[in-house]
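Suppose you are handed only these lines of text.
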Amino acid sequence: MQLNPLESRGALSIAACNSGKSFAERVITELRRIAKKERDEATYGLKDTQEIVFPNGEVKFVINEFIRGDDFYIIQCIDDPLSERSVNDNLMALVTAIHAAYQSDPDHITAVIPQFPYSRQERRKTREAISAKIVAQLLENVGAQRVLTLDIHAEAIQGFFTYTKLEDMHASGEIVDYLTHKLKLDIKNLVVTGPDVGSAEKARHYSKRIGTSFAIVDKARDYSKPGQIESMRLVGEVKDRDILIVDDMIATGGTLLHAAALLKEKGARDIYVAVSLPFFNGNAVERIEKAYRDGIIKLVVGTDAVFWGEAFVQNTEWYEEVSVAPLFARVIYNVNKKRSVSKLLR
Ligand code: R5P
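From them, the structure of the protein bound to ribose-5-phosphate can be written out as follows.
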């Protein structure tokens, strides 16, 4: 197909690291749908690549197809519950993939990382690294000109890049659509809250979008003990109300379960949870399962930005998955066609 240089960048081409493959396939299905709707004759598929892991753990990424002049997107889901590979392994795989792309001379390189690793280490409190900055500089240094991510833990991470553009997308549109249209939550009796002050802005955003009141849970952590919470207080009225707790992520589940227990103690009725990144690290699944059985948590809605596989989604009564692949596909398509993306990023 002949590309009109004024309308688009180079040919839209997509590759994935191993842990990004499932999400990439979903994005490609959506791109095909968009293309069909727009009567665009381009065909989209995953580029032929290899991620080779050596016996000592080193990784090498090879692109087996020509990508010179392309608008190239490399997809990786860095915290992958279905893989043995660690966050660090997957970050290194991404870095080598970006550099392999850089060596192959596309016009533009975008790293598509639904989860931005080390985003909770964006400032220092004592003698410690600002690891989110290391990640930003690493991605930029190997050749990423743009990074697409979802609900990054700290928006200030944008400033850790010098030339690379960071586009932070939000799952709230997809999640609110699910809660109000598919689940048909009774919004008249709903209060939205975040499990800590850091998520208050997100809670306010959800409450405005849904049209409900909101409350704040104030969490104090003991940073000398990773994952430990010191105390929690509630600001707002929740008695006899259904609650929607919103957060960017569930890691160990500690923050969520402490907040849910406090809300129940204050007289809350059903507790729903919405998170963009359901990492469920450690024994979070077992802890949430117990909270569900004990009547503390009614439902957790997460997104496929952390892909748990069809079997988990189907067999887990307390979990519903909303796909953000259509959102990523639309942003990728619009960037490639040099169209506006600002409305999609809200
Ligand atoms: C904290 O600021 C984050 O928004 C999450 O609330 C937190 O990282 C979740 O961690 P965990 O599930 O381990 O308590």
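What can we learn from it? The first helix runs from residue 21 to 37. Residues 120, 195-196, 198-199, 227, 247-256 surround ribose-5-phosphate (CB under 6 Å).
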